[in-house]
Amino acid sequence: MGALRIVTLAIAICFLINTPAAVLLVPLPRSIGSATTTAATCSSPPEQIFHQLIDHSNASDGSTFGQRVQFNTTFYKAGGPLFILQGDESTDMTCSELMEFSQWAPEFHAATMVIEHRYFGQSRPFGNDSYTNQHMRFLTLDNVMSDTVAVVNWWRNNVTDGAGKDAPVIVFGGSYAGSIATILRINYPQTFFGALASAPPLRTFLPVTDDPDRFNRYDLVTQFWMDHAPEAAAKVRAGFQELEDILDAGNYTEIPSIFAVCTTPKEEDRDEFLRSLAAIYSLVLQANTAYLGPLFNLTGFPFDAIASRTLAASSPLAAVNETFNALCYSSIASNGCFDWTNQCSDSVGAELVPLNYLRCNYMNYDYGDVAPGSMFAPTAPYDSTEYCQKTFGITPPTKEELFAKYHFDEETIRRTTRVIYSQGGSDPAVKSVDRINLSW
After folding, report:
1. What is the location of CATH 3.40.50.1820 in the chain?
2. Element (DSSP H or E) covering residue 9
3. What confidence tens digit (pLDDT) does each residue in 273-316 have?
4. What's the CA gap between 153 and 150, in Å, rounded?
5. Per residue in 146-191, pLDDT tens?
6. Class of the domain covering 213-392
7. Hey, what CATH class is 9-207+403-432 in?
8. Where are the beta strands (DSSP E) in 99-215?
9. Minimal CA–CA distance to 428: which of 259, 214, 258?
């Protein structure tokens, strides 16, 4: 999950947008056409429900679902831009008032919009039955992009009484949503004037066997720990070595007495268990921003707090456990344990079932194979194809199929204009981003 802390990019937006002097302030209606106000998660203003087609490829069917959106035209003036936050894999919608671009709206006379991703949060086409394989067939990248285009087109003609008809639209997104933002700009240039993509893992939108950096993720995590807390890194390395020895001796029943796991891993789970625990360390760096600290019951930057706890721990295994206690805090607090199979993704608000469905269809990656030499226990190479086939009946597409359909090959990305890419310095997804040209 990539943070959208990209304040310095406000200067760059000036080169994307020309704000005219004409003034027409358009207030946000409370009930508008095919969108209605709903019980509020967001407060400034409340979110609304947009009646979205379930299947854009079969519009004649006419079936719709309620997709949560948030519009704010408080500072909008005719000709000003529309800033959109593209929804991601979160269990709840991110409110625009919490985002950096809401602070830019007065300067640019901009309207802001947030669109919740279909099948996530409350935007479930079939309610509690949305996660059956039969119903998830409408969870496609084509439908996700068409959702955003449909809301933009409707906004132009309804929310602003036509004043936003020619507004330049800038789409924002972080991590997975950053990839969507880029792909929207590539495939719908007539709708999206520009995009700001924070840590978009575009290179993971490929079969796992085509990822040349599949072994690098945990090398990068290790290097960050070595650079910033070498003594703590050595303690973590020792802890994983002890854990590896316990597993390889067949003593799996000892694990619940060491870590607060909800289920005891079995011998056949060895590599998945070790990969999942290493992935939690990766999450520490992905979430290493001060404003996410309280999410894990931490103060300040998560990495700094966890490194301090690691050093203070009574043993290497206890040191490793400090990371899980912090990152899996919400699960442990509510359930008394954490589900190691989801790498504590629930603690940062990720909806795992539809995310895995998307991964199988477009991003056939695991959290990375753990190669020898990192501070974690090495694992055998992993290919999630079998999981995708067994769980969802999906055989992941080839690189050629994805490039042909969505046009995000490196050459196209490099020649696509008006896209700004940003990257958190500690994010181990850097290798999925660093070959992208900063394009205008």
Report:
1. 9-207+403-432
2. helix 9-16
3. 998 899 888 888 877 877 666 767 788 888 999 999 999 999 99
4. 5
5. 999 999 999 998 888 888 999 999 999 988 899 999 999 999 999 9
6. mainly alpha
7. alpha beta
8. 111-115, 169-174, 194-198
9. 214
